[in-house]
TrEMBL record:
<dbReference type="InterPro" id="IPR009742">
    <property type="entry name" value="Curlin_rpt"/>
</dbReference>
<feature type="signal peptide">
    <location>
        <begin position="1"/>
        <end position="27"/>
    </location>
</feature>
<keyword id="KW-0732">Signal</keyword>
<protein>
    <submittedName>
        <fullName>Curli production assembly protein CsgB</fullName>
    </submittedName>
</protein>
<dbReference type="Pfam" id="PF07012">
    <property type="entry name" value="Curlin_rpt"/>
</dbReference>
<comment type="similarity">
    <text>Belongs to the CsgA/CsgB family.</text>
</comment>
């Protein structure tokens, strides 16, 4: 398990920092700190955040990022447009993830470290990229893409 944690830390942290330094996220003018209060961290209720994404064309960039650590995790991103980026970064226990994008020149990435992994990326359009990286014991991945000029990469580690 130590090997899986080491691989996940090496994958999760650089990806998180790269996503946070993304021009799309910086241009969004979000608050610099999204820290939770102690009572929010301890809360077991499900949290849902909806961020509207408008289609800006290939020259523009939209980014959706979900970064989670904890116990029974789950994530879901659905976007429509072009030149979209979606990242789901999870570390924890039960894990599940999903990315579904409609449009062209989109990128989807799921990185999971934990026990009961599941992942799913489904993209419709041309020139989309999908990547899934999983460490843990319960691996299960699915990438479905419809269109042309598509690429997909799935890596699973112990």
């Amino acid at each position: 398990m130590f090997n899986a944690q080491r691989i996940a830390c090496k994958a999760l942290l650089p990806l998180l920092f790269a996503a946070l330094a993304s021009p799309a996220l910086l241009a969004a003018s979000l608050p610099t700190s999204l820290d939770l209060a102690p009572d929010e961290i301890a809360s077991s209720r499900s949290q849902a955040i909806a961020l509207p994404q408008t289609e800006t064309g290939i020259s523009g960039r939209n980014l959706a990022l979900v970064a989670q650590t904890g116990d029974s995790l789950s994530a879901d991103i659905t976007q429509t447009g072009n030149a979209l980026e979606a990242f789901i970064l999870q570390s924890g226990y039960a894990l599940e993830a999903s990315i579904e994008q409609y449009g062209s020149h989109n990128q989807g990435l799921i990185v999971q470290s934990g026990s009961y992994n599941k992942a799913r990326i489904e993209q419709y359009g041309a020139y989309n990229d999908a990547q899934i990286e999983q460490t843990g014991t319960g691996h299960c991945s699915s990438v479905t893409q419809h269109g042309q000029g598509l690429s997909a990469l799935v890596r699973q580690y112990r």
